[in-house]
DNA sequence: CTGTTAGCGCTTTCAG
DNA sequence: CTGAAAGCGCTAACAG
């Protein structure tokens, strides 16, 4: 492996000082057109790329921001990540991704890694990071948290109201006449999951529909979890006409369980999901779900970090989850008659 | 923001020299238990985290390897990424992800960024990076390429034989009696897509089934692309009894088009995909597809890089794509009779 | 076993 | 406008 080029070699090749080359690279100070041309030529010819490590050390800033994500392979988080990338475009800063699963060693985790990398700021997605670590972090550098409300750090937490979204979803089902609505919940230790459950409950309460404990079943946001929970429900013979799943992935698992029993969606049962991940619009039938503006959220998080880095007060856009009515929901089937009219609307 | 701690401050606090602290942190050299304890205590109490930038500069190595991916949000690539993460576990090296979409500026792309970051090695996924840049890179540092065969760099290219996988898929359909099999192709400039098309063709040829140009339709690996192409086929009235999609995502789009026309899978038509992304096992019906060992591939790529970094000759595991028969395929429907027996097997 | 001392490649005063 | 020189925080000889 050839040693990589240094600023000094470029300077030598262009017959100028290292300071001059540095000025040109960074656009700081003024340099004569003559020398500038010589330096540019040398950089080009030699294929020089500044060593960011050295730049960071000398400058005291890495021009990078850490992005901590629970799972880099999740359709939801990766959509947010894309937004974050977009948000940093052209800012000079670039994102450094780290997934929570990743352990450098038993003693240090991804967060430590990012801190060691001396990122200038951090964006934390999701809620698995211990609160105290987050507080400590907030004292160290600009921090924006997505999807969790941190007591004392409200101004740096970007959230969409999951509760309202879940309420809308449940209300939609209620309006279609459903009364026995299953909620396929997410992990109990997940803030969003709890908020969605709360929205489900509120909608039922507001509609005066009593909550049935047996209709709230535990899931884990995965297809397999949704499948298992629904399977269990069916096996137990619990009656229901609709499922509101805590996310799209678990709704897919639930639907497979229905499918196995020959139950049709939305004819026999209605299903609504949450998130509106890319594939959901193409399910058969296309899934009615609650859309989260993932890309925009990521982009906004990046914008907030950038503002914080500039020492400005970041503006906090409000995001709302909104129901996307597609084709997995329909009026509750009438048992005693087949008089479901053919009238439009 | 508090300035972050330096090695020197720790050394001062522990009343030892910086060299001693460095030795302890890196496990190089031997240090008396007494001083070691004092240093550990200081590190702990102060919350010291080494500055990787400085370490990298001093050491001449960043202990990081760049991972370039076409799209961080793709279910396929992100599964590979997970494998890569696993593969680096405990090695001391850590992955730095960059997606090709991301542009630092008009002049420099993700690859430049990774080079600037002085990653010690690189893993490139997929085939969008210009060949000459890859060659140049290979001269600079250990490089492993996944999913592309680079002339002259065969030893560093990890591939699964896409052609054989596609052949299996097509053969499976052929064995079920299908003759009018659509191939919903991937992007023409994508090596894997071309290989899958080649496999489709080879299977047809081997079976003595003539290739019908109108059955090979262009897609782009997306749900929307699959939907549009299938829609067009249906609108044109082209007869066919099965679809072999170049990937699972486009197969979902295709299925939506069928669904819109009231066509049932696998009763009326059979569909097979490629990749076996996480959701495919939970489609209704579960999708018959060609599985790629994504996680293993990622892990193997990491292992190869690690070997290269140690100066060893990396071993090249062979991966094969294998058909996973699920429920989206069935014997071609008999038009003139409904005599499809009820015999098992 | 431990401290001293050169750098690593780059930015940034500070003089010219 | 430009160069010299002093670090940035850490590692790695090199002496003790």
Automatic annotation (TrEMBL), chains A, B:
InterPro entries associated with the record: HTH_LacI (IPR000843), LacI/GalR-like_sensor (IPR046335), Lambda_DNA-bd_dom_sf (IPR010982), Peripla_BP_I (IPR028082)
Top-level taxon in the UniProt lineage: Bacteria
HTH lacI-type domain mapped to chain residues: 5-59
Protein name in the entry: Transcriptional regulator, LacI family
Pfam families per record: LacI, Peripla_BP_3
Gene3D superfamilies xref list: 3.40.50.2300, lambda repressor-like DNA-binding domains
Gene Ontology MF, one: DNA-binding transcription factor activity
Alphabetical UniProt keywords: DNA-binding, Repressor, Transcription, Transcription regulation
């Amino acid at each position: 492996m050839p040693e990589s080029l240094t600023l000094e070699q470029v300077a030598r090749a262009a017959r100028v000082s290292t300071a001059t080359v540095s000025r040109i690279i960074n656009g700081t100070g003024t340099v004569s057109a003559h020398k500038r041309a010589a330096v540019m030529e040398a950089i080009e010819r030699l294929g020089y790329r500044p060593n960011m490590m050295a730049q960071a050390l000398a400058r005291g800033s890495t021009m990078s921001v850490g992005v901590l994500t629970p799972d880099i392979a999740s359709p939801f988080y990766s959509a947010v990540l894309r937004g974050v990338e977009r948000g940093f475009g052209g800012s000079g800063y670039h994102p450094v991704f780290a997934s929570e699963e990743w352990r450098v060693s038993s003693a240090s985790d991804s967060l430590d890694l990012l801190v060691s990398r001396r990122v200038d700021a951090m964006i934390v997605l999701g809620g698995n990071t211990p609160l105290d670590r987050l507080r400590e972090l907030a004292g160290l550098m600009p921090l924006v948290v997505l999807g969790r409300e941190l007591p004392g750090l409200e101004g740096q937490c970007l959230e969409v109201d999951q509760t309202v979204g879940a309420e809308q979803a449940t209300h939609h089902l209620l309006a279609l006449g459903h009364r026995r609505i299953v909620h396929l919940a997410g992990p109990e230790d997940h803030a969003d999951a709890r908020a969605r459950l709360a929205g489900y409950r509120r909608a039922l309460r507001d509609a005066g529909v009593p909550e049935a404990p047996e209709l709230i079943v535990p899931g884990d946001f995965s297809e397999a979890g949704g499948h298992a929970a629904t399977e269990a429900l069916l096996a137990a013979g619990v009656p229901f006409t609709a499922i509101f799943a805590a996310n799209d992935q678990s709704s897919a698992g639930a639907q497979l369980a229905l499918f196995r029993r020959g139950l049709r969606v939305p004819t026999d049962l209605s299903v609504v999901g949450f998130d509106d991940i890319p594939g959901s619009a193409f399910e058969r039938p296309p899934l009615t779900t609650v859309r989260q503006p993932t890309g925009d959220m990521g982009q906004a998080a990046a914008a907030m970090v950038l503002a914080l880095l500039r020492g400005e007060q970041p503006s906090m856009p409000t995001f709302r989850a909104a129901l996307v009515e597609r084709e997995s929901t329909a009026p509750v089937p009438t048992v005693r008659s087949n008089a479901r009219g053919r009238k439009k609307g």
